[in-house]
């Protein structure tokens, strides 16, 4: 049990005193109706409103929503903690008292009951796309209970439960299936009522409002009876109104039905309601609760492939109340939608943060507030982009127009007023907005007291970039003559610089954390101003007295090495080199270093300083002739041990959390302490930005600042980027699977996306080992180049033409192999409605688009694509990357990319070279759908003649969703607990470590809500930690949650989701559930085929793990096939003579022996022995073990050949060569994560485990075939329960 945040080393008497801070106990709640009493588990940390929510969600108390709770006859405030309620303890009783309704309570009650009884129907959300927040986990988990095999004639089996595993007849050569991303069609849910809506008699007239009338409803039961209901302050009752008569007063007995809850009233009106409602609850309970909960703290992910519009998944039902929901949610005046965002943000930031509980409340409120603002701003940006919001300055140029919607201020992310004219114009402005939102996020994460930021969101939609911000009070204020509009930093570019002493302390704190140096700048008069931040970063003293920081797009220095090579000022006097002319000038001058790079460079400088200090001390001691001894260890701020960490980060190692490699000559100084407070290093962000030092001293200082920035750029070019390729080549980190994971890996190391070309070039130079990185880098450059081209055509294009534009551009890129001359068909009536629309995309052909993409790649990434690159692209993977970057949702159907004849043996739904053949979606034939469309007037408006087929049509673009970039900060409190747990476990303090891990999990869930990307990541991290701690049940439960939450918030086919499925499969197998594990592994592999395609380097581990699992369930022949498939990928990646290949040959030889192929086993073991002999030498233990196995297998093969007819003798000899499985099962590292970190603690320190050989002797493996698997079944440990979860929900199982 976790008794609050327990800190390592805290005395026991102090922790005992803290028991009241967080204890878990049960309460009894007395109810006015059946079941009259319920018991709930609560934590003393929780507020009374959390208890209310527990009551509302409890199955027996669904009907209650408007009530309060009393203890000993006294009403309890909803917003106080349970620990503050006098006399409340375990076993105490609370009483539920029903409250009178207000109009708001009545409206929300109706909304809740509609959703609860399944009457809400489907919604078409303007922000959330089709199937937003989809999870496939339930379908994957249940697939293991069905026969996965398919008959040879293409007909599926009956689907009855059989004892089979998911890998039966698995086809390694089959390409990705579009149906992998689609949920199965489910039977419709039971219908409880026909309709529940607002009556057309709404709203109540004034004289009835005075009598307590709130709403009028209309209910049609399953029996076909229609009832008009009055919502009154006392509850709900059936009135005497009809469709043509208004009489909202109660009916006479015996029809005078009334109840405080609408649910209870409907139960009394419809005889079939109770049974159908029970069936509905059973139907809903078939799914995991995490898959059905509504997302409230994050925008759900949108799949890029969705089922066709004719699918039962998206059946559009009649529902009158759908149009009434805005009224039900926000009231008649819509005043509840109008929030003062800025005041909410800043007042939340000013909340106290002294105690853990204060920090928890503050961060929880902050997370919810940012989520609400992000969603509101994204919805407003969509309306602005579609022209639904009138500008505040309609006479200005379109790019300079500004908008106000729901108290959010919007502007276009372009250079509408010429601010960035010298930096690259619109390109520079677009980049600046993206950098600004990241800068705001960095400041929010630092949480500097007394410094405030506006809420900021960037939305990319239909080629437009919109910036939404909360309104800073005073930003539009007209200042008096002589006063500056800005109080600190550059006012009008760099010509006027303002200083304000009140900003110095807060900017100093900010700059220290960002490694920004205090430096001078000069205005146009040559006057010096000493600023704590960049001249571009502005401070504004709001009319509310708060200090705001604005324009955070340049908090780090320019990447001057890049700009000097690739940016040329517009001047006829500047000579452009031939190479530069070929690549074109880089689009903008906003190329800055990433904060991660600055931090990496700071650590490198600190390491060098520490080493120099150690050398200096060593030399001083030698000079004095003193005997070197270990110094006394002291503690204190700013003091570190040589090779220790500061702020939780390694200062003497290459990677965070890695062990420090110290020189042997310094071993005697291991415990010596060095005071790093004497170390000072920061970068000047304003160098190379036109500043002109005036005095010689200033020039010297400026020259040194420039030298430091150049050194940082060189560190990026010469050290960081090559290290990425080296780490990938050596297998030290997980390989990226797609463009997103590659970008994340680069950003984590501090590498900008503009270096994709260098990544590709370095990968190409390293050969086949990192070929996948080269392929991904080129694919990412092409998809980003296409995005820029598409945005150019979409930017000013009216929204009704967007689908035609996107489909045509996709045809030119991906469909040119099917139709080299695609054309666009646009409804002439629609064209005539927009006579001024620029439909330039019609003139694009494959050759033009190819040239445009090549130019974008050369210009932005300095990389020359192969002349035949269009013939080498992977169609499905490139289509996925483009769809994710543009927010496209495409119909999952057959897409023919090449002219390739199909045969009758083509499998259903298989994407062949990017072609989906005979695809069916949810029981609907897409071929039939296309046939239906071909005869529809929308498919061909003006021509009855058949035209050449194209890969995409406008109807295939089902939807376009916005891409949202926000500035939501991470929770420092939850991260501290997580890091503390990790450190405690590393220090072998397992009990304290596990308590802190549970505390971190609880904090993450409380602050972010359960459905959030950060919670998915902490579930994954904790599952790995519990797996290493042999807490298998807890690892499985957390991995399952990680899968569902990552599917719904990050993406059903994201790299993180794939890795979560792989780890879930591994943990299930370790827990003794091999067949479910195989189902998860299979789904991950199917996703992998869509995301990357076959042959990914990390798939070697996955395929090998599956082979081990198949051996565990004695599927020896299947296991052999999987080992062979793993060997094929390994040979292609590492080469035939690598140690990795030898390791797999070792395992394959054992698998062949198990499959009675003694000759093949000898041959494979001989190959393994030869490789080990050549690579490791004859004395290496792996070579010796391979030699021993080779002798055994050879002798056995000879014996079998001589006595082939003697079955009994062969049987006895078979026992002598029975190997057990063998490649060490290990979890997948996340992209960019060290493999050692992922497997730490899992292999017991055996050096052979690192290359996968079995660490046991042959004698220990002899019993496996005989069926003695007692040692193979892992010992189940009791699962740990999480006391923070109400109801005693188990993390680790029972």
UniProtKB/TrEMBL annotation:
Residue segments, region Disordered: 620-667, 917-950, 1224-1294
Intracellular or extracellular location(s): Cytoplasm
Biased composition (Basic and acidic residues): 1256-1269
Family label: Belongs to the CLU family.
Protein role: mRNA-binding protein involved in proper cytoplasmic distribution of mitochondria.
Organism annotation: Trichoglossum hirsutum
Example GO BP: intracellular distribution of mitochondria
Keyword Chloroplast (UniProt): no
Name by which UniProt lists this protein: Clustered mitochondria protein homolog
Segments of skewed composition (Low complexity): 628-649
HAMAP family membership: CLU
GO CC terms: cytoplasm
Comp. bias regions, Basic residues: 1273-1287
Molecular function (Gene Ontology), one example: mRNA binding
Keywords assigned: Cytoplasm, RNA-binding, TPR repeat
Pfam families: CLU (PF13236), CLU_N (PF15044), eIF3_p135 (PF12807), GSKIP_dom (PF05303), TPR_10 (PF13374), TPR_12 (PF13424)
Polar residues bias spans: 935-950
Quaternary context: May associate with the eukaryotic translation initiation factor 3 (eIF-3) complex.
UniProt KW Transport keyword: no
Domain of life, per lineage: Eukaryota
Domain Clu: 319-563
